[in-house]
Amino acid sequence: MSHTYTTLMCHGVFSTKHRAALLKSEMMPELVKVVGGIVRDRDGKLLAMNGTSNHVHLLMIFHPKLALSDLFRDVKAVSSNWVHEKFPGSTGFGWQEGYGAFSVRSFPRASALG
Questions:
Q1: CB within 8 Å of 47: residues ≥ 6 apart
Q2: Helix, strand, coil content of the chain in percent (nearest 5)
Q3: Does position 76 have pLDDT exceeding 90, yes or no?
Q4: pLDDT, greater one: 33 or 2
Q5: Which overall architecture, per CATH, does domain 8-106 show?
Q6: What is the pLDDT of residue 113?
Q7: Mean pLDDT calculated for residue range 23-52
Q8: Bridge partners, 109 (sequence order)
Q9: pTM
């Protein structure tokens, strides 16, 4: 095969530092866009993102040229800096050190199944 083809889908989850309720509802729409841009800049695609006041879930496709740990490091670092710049009152905001990452099997669209 002359070309490489991958679809690496991941469900990721990480929390705010000390699981503090620091994610405000007004942050989330813009935070989703910021995280989507970070993932896209690294040749991936954010498919979905949601969460609560103390953690987020991501569903994304990532490119194999970048280690998953590097992708999570970048997402957390850049998004944390964005929160501090966009919401100056969020001085205590930060993400926990770790993350959870789980492989997800992609299924063909229903229209392609028959």
A1: 9, 59, 60, 61
A2: 35, 25, 40
A3: yes
A4: 33
A5: 2-Layer Sandwich (3.30)
A6: 42
A7: 95
A8: none
A9: 0.86
